């Protein structure tokens, strides 16, 4: 009897234990589950989860996220009971759209037309470009569109209108022959500014080469080359035209890809250096070679083979033929020197740190010979600092006179500016029968920002004495990037001021305007 009651008690305890465990497990499960709502793909889902973070909760609900999708709250937030999780679907697509590139209108002043006469020189034509946009969508609604790439399909063609200005200025008498560039063409005047006339009519001078022969009878120039495949076309071609006969036809010399060219001192030969066209900036890569050709371009001899050049060699070396024809002066970004044609030997005359432009261009010194060929006058970058980043960034540019024997290095101006462009005059006979030459140069009004500064015009004797300011004297604006040419007799200077040519008398100080087209540049003055 007792055993039976004990068995019933054991059975009853076992059953109670099982019920207690089941209830405990059930209660435990009810306490850990969290009720959440998920809004995704336009629907609202209600469910329960025991996961700890938003990321894990979404995975438990079978929601797959894309790489750009966003959630609110963020994925790392802990899940709480009653939480609503908002999923924003994000995608990016590219779309291409063609747009019109409108043409511009250019108005040129031309002294070949009568005052007020108007002529349509070129019809304008719109171009076309393809713009690729990166478009962002959120839940299939566009929220952002930004241009990611542009490709020009067809370049616009500018409309060009020419307005005549002939007769707008009184004629100024001049001695010798003056040549200059105006709106892409070569022009000249002889005897007086009223008799100016164009030497070319195609408007395609690229202005890399523009040189009047010493006797003033021929003009050497370079012009652009048209090609269907512009990327593989030569950089340009070299031409010559006579200045004596009216309507003389320009003649190609058969020399292409020219970066520099110059007449020999006697006008019978031509020196030139070449460059290759490239797709990136600045559009060419210099070969740093040097050749000499006959005046008709037929006979050619190489003086220097092509090379990579020194520092910034891709920009190229500047050359200048000595008055006696025996040597070349050369200028690189960090050095000025001479090359002896008879021996092929190079000699450095002045070293300085290359200027760091932070652009796709290189500053290279200008060079000018004294009439007797014994001296050079040049610009140079700050020679007082020679090492480190500070030297490369120095804003100081100087003017130096250098002797060919290396015995003289005379500093003429220590804060002249990068575009000072000193030019040595021809020797002239003065009143005291003293043969004397002068140096004309620009002096930056703001030497610490000489790249953008205007310049005053000065003249000084070859030994640095008798410095005199010539322009401006009456409150006018200074010169932009001085472009100067001496008369063959050394008594007058030809200069460009605000796009027009002026002649300045050294004795009288008179400044007389020669052109009114506002597009004149590259002045040359020969006999």
Description:
- This protein is mainly beta.
- Among the domains are: 2-89, Roll (Ubiquitin-like (UB roll)), CATH 3.10.20.30; 92-154, Resuscitation-promoting factor rpfb (Resuscitation-promoting factor rpfb fold, Single Sheet); 199-307, 6 Propeller (Neuraminidase).
- It is elongated.
Quick description:
This protein is mostly beta strands and 527 residues long.
Indicate the percent of residues in helices: under 10%
Rg over CA atoms, rounded to whole Å, is 39 Å
User: Kindly, what is the distance between the CA atoms of the first and last residues, rounded to a whole number of angstroms?
Assistant: 150 Å
| Beta-strand content | over 45%
Number of helices: 3
- Kindly state the mean pLDDT as a whole number? 88
Low-confidence runs of at least 5 consecutive residues? 18-31
Structural class: mainly beta
CATH class of the domain at 199-307: Mainly Beta
Largest sheet at a glance?
A: 5 strands, antiparallel
What is the CATH architecture annotation of the domain at 199-307?
A: 6 Propeller
According to DSSP, the number of beta strands is 41
CATH overall fold name of the domain at 199-307: Neuraminidase
CATH superfamily of the domain at 199-307: TolB, C-terminal domain
